[in-house]
UniProtKB/TrEMBL annotation:
Catalysed reactions, semicolon-separated: L-arginyl-[protein] + NAD(+) = N(omega)-(ADP-D-ribosyl)-L-arginyl-[protein] + nicotinamide + H(+)
EC number: 2.4.2.31
Keyword Nucleotidyltransferase appears in the UniProt entry: yes
Protein name: NAD(P)(+)--arginine ADP-ribosyltransferase
Sorted UniProt keywords: Glycosyltransferase, NAD, NADP, Nucleotidyltransferase, Secreted, Toxin, Transferase, Virulence
Family indicated by similarity: Belongs to the Arg-specific ADP-ribosyltransferase family.
PANTHER family: ADP-RIBOSYLTRANSFERASE, SECRETED EXOENZYME S
GO molecular function: NAD+ poly-ADP-ribosyltransferase activity; NAD+-protein-arginine ADP-ribosyltransferase activity; nucleotidyltransferase activity; toxin activity
Cellular localization per UniProt: Secreted
Coiled coil segments of this chain: none
Length: 289
């Protein structure tokens, strides 16, 4: 929503902008509810001071676990179940195939975003996101990819719906990154059990956001994941530093690709911070342990 508002005010020089739940009158600096014009509140445009840093977005960097009994999945190597299913559904066989069919795929993505936006009452957001894709649909795969990353970093309905769906997968009923979490006692016990087991390998099936900034990641939650890729040459293929493309570069966001596997090394309790620290190491299917 912030991107829509800022574009309307700064770029398009509009006197007002309509969002899904409200509209803003720039001249009178007031926000008005779309369903009840008597619900109004004053607004003020404030430019963020990037020098001051700030908190991470809690909902993004500390998602509530979707699967009740676990926050991880069994080892499936580098299979990306959700993405593989998508590729199969549109008969996409290879990267070269994607290059040839990128226009078609972007069009399918636009239709899907509009549909999901309508379902959750976010049609204005969906229309704006689709407009961003429309601008790059005839450009290179790199341009389209960068646009998709930018869209993913926005505070919108899209990344929440995407990761919600991906985290439901498997539900039957020298570089470190950090992610906070609010885990139940049962979930913490599950990590401890797996760490002591003969095969402590597991996987994340959703896109998972972490930060290079440990201090920011420690601001919330009762657990902290420390993802270690210190000795891995393939770090960049496993994780993506998307801070340069993000709407919020100060979050220093590292995006873990879906289907990436890791080894649960150990679980410790930090009494000074009152948090469980869960140490993970990125692995590949070729790793013996």
């Amino acid at each position: 929503e912030n991107a829509i508002i800022e574009e309307a005010f700064s770029t398009l020089k509009k006197t007002h902008v309509i969002i899904d739940d409200y509209h803003i009158d720039f001249e009178h600096r007031v926000q008005i509810a779309n369903d009840d014009k008597t619900k109004q509140r004053p607004i003020k445009r404030v430019e963020m001071n990037k020098e001051e840093g700030g908190r991470l977005r809690e909902a993004r960097f500390m998602p509530n676990p979707i699967v009740p009994s676990s926050s991880f999945h069994g080892l499936v190597g580098l299979r990306k179940i959700f993405i593989d299913s998508f590729m199969k559904s549109i008969d996409l066989k290879s990267v070269n195939d994607w290059e040839k069919r990128k226009y078609e795929i972007v069009e399918k993505a636009k239709l899907g975003i509009l549909h999901e936006g309508q379902l959750v009452g976010k049609q204005c957001e969906a229309n704006w996101i689709v407009e961003q894709l429309e601008k790059v649909k005839d450009k290179t795969k790199k341009d389209i990819g960068e646009c998709c990353v930018y869209i993913y970093t926005l505070e919108s309905f899209l990344y929440k719906i995407l990761n919600h769906a991906m985290r439901l997968i498997g539900d039957i009923d020298h570089e470190n990154s950090w992610q906070s979490a609010q885990l139940t006692d049962e979930m913490i016990a599950a990590y401890q059990h797996v760490a002591r087991s003969k095969d402590p390998r597991r996987s994340f099936q959703a896109f998972t956001s972490c930060s290079r900034n440990r201090a920011k990641a420690e601001q919330f939650g009762n657990a902290l994941f420390v993802l270690n890729a210190e000795n891995r040459i393939s770090y960049r293929t496993l994780n993506m530093d998307i801070s340069a493309l993000s709407t919020y570069p100060d979050e220093e966001e590292i995006l873990i690709r879906p289907g990436r596997s890791f080894k649960i090394e150990r679980v410790e309790f930090d009494k000074t911070k009152n948090k469980h620290i869960i140490y993970l190491t990125s692995i590949s299917t070729s790793d013996a342990n």
